[in-house]
């Protein structure tokens, strides 16, 4: 058996992995909170899709490969297959997304959450071991069945907890605490799966084909940047639509109610600004009945004061 190092760069790898898991979980839980407040199915699905990329892509997949940068076998070069690596990303995002869609619609129930957690946890397991299958070394990788089962149970439990938090937790303090718990569970699943692995060297050590671990930082950073930009733009668009439209998707008509094009910031007329709310209601009723609405009444001019009577002059003695 060959020596395996999981912390080649010291504490950097577990700390960076935990922070990525925490930030991805935090953003995902914030998005699921917005999904619960959405007024229609389309907006809810959009927020859940953003949450799937945040939790599955950031909190799970990026955490996995940030921790894998610390994986090293001193007697053999370590390389990665890009296709298998991207396949593991797809497993993470798609299964988390399906789980969020299951629990994000309809009545909340323990049974539905557990079923979705089982599905999502299976996807997380597939993500981890697909990523491990993408490792290229001049050796044979073997796994301890007991620790593999333990990592699977942790993945299912972590996924179920994450989905339950997604449909029940509110408030920034509670969401932050839930994200911290989720990050611990995700990291625990990863390092349990890594502990299940053992390396048996081949008789002849040959340089394997694939991408160097540090070279993996380039596609990972590109994917991360594109994902963050896409998530931010989608979130801003969804927030803008919710700000300026009602629950049915119709533009809100507030200050500029008289403007036939509500999206154009056109100031109202001076006459309409002078009318009181009661007068506006009367004007709207007259317009519906086909009668012209009266304009603002001019303020009455003050009447002149009455002329004072001059007393008659009296003749002197």
TrEMBL record:
MHYT domain ranges (all copies): 9-200
Entry superkingdom: Bacteria
One GO CC term, this protein: membrane
Biased composition (Low complexity): 281-292
PROSITE patterns according to UniProt: MHYT
UniProt keyword Transmembrane, yes or no: yes
Annotated TM spans: 15-35, 47-71, 83-103, 115-131, 143-167, 179-199, 211-236
Protein name: NO-binding membrane sensor protein with MHYT domain
Record's keyword terms, sorted: Membrane, Transmembrane, Transmembrane helix
Keyword Transmembrane: yes
Naturally occurring in which organism (per UniProt): Actinoplanes italicus
Annotated spans, Disordered: 281-317
Compositionally biased tracts (Pro residues): 293-309
UniProt-listed Pfam families: MHYT (PF03707)
InterPro entries on file: MHYT_dom
